[in-house]
């Protein structure tokens, strides 16, 4: 519950920052009013799905998570390169003809920590039943982040940077979601 409140409070602040008056209570549409599109979006954020179980990311090699059978579909012909970020998160980067794809196994903070950073965060379709969130950079439509909430204080952070969209792909975030799904297909088997 605390994890969900941590995600929802910053979103509530962001969506209400433009209001010009203050009143006590929670605004709700009247019986005859329909919710606005913004209210419908916030409704889906306010009730994120629960994780089906916890998947701990400690001591997992992220370069083992992308099935080799999926390499060609992402324009990859060699294994990823393992490293770690400044906070110790294990990272794997794959470079191919279409761009670069990273899988970061964040074990030092929960997915709610993504809020308030440079990204514009929104809900995404769950992956294998796990809550997922899309992050985009303002003004850059060729980069997308997918964060998948896999355990308390841990999440899979997928980053995709494309040179151009592959045929049949509508957006870089669709592609990033597919890539995160490939990674998760291995994680859920653990």
Automatic annotation (TrEMBL):
<dbReference type="InterPro" id="IPR024520">
    <property type="entry name" value="DUF3558"/>
</dbReference>
<keyword id="KW-0732">Signal</keyword>
<feature type="compositionally biased region" description="Polar residues">
    <location>
        <begin position="33"/>
        <end position="46"/>
    </location>
</feature>
<feature type="region of interest" description="Disordered">
    <location>
        <begin position="22"/>
        <end position="59"/>
    </location>
</feature>
<protein>
    <recommendedName>
        <fullName>DUF3558 domain-containing protein</fullName>
    </recommendedName>
</protein>
<feature type="signal peptide">
    <location>
        <begin position="1"/>
        <end position="24"/>
    </location>
</feature>
<dbReference type="Pfam" id="PF12079">
    <property type="entry name" value="DUF3558"/>
</dbReference>
């Amino acid at each position: 519950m605390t994890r969900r409140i941590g995600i929802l409070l910053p979103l509530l602040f962001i969506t209400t920052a433009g209001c010009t008056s203050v009143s006590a209570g929670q605004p709700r549409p009247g019986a005859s009013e329909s919710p606005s599109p913004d209210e419908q979006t916030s409704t889906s954020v306010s009730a994120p799905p629960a994780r089906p179980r916890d998947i701990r990311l400690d001591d997992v090699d992220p370069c083992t998570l992308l099935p080799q059978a999926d390499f060609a579909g992402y324009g990859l012909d060699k294994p990823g390169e393992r490293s770690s970020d400044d906070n110790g998160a294990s990272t794997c980067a794959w470079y191919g003809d279409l761009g670069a794809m990273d899988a970061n196994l964040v074990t030092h903070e929960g997915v709610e920590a993504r809020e308030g950073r440079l990204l514009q965060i929104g809900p995404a379709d769950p992956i294998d039943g796990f809550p997922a969130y899309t992050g985009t950079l303002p003004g850059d439509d060729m980069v997308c982040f997918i964060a998948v909430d896999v355990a308390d204080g841990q999440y899979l952070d997928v980053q995709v940077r494309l040179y151009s969209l592959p045929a049949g792909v509508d957006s870089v975030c669709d592609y990033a979601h597919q890539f995160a799904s490939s990674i998760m297909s291995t994680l859920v088997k653990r």
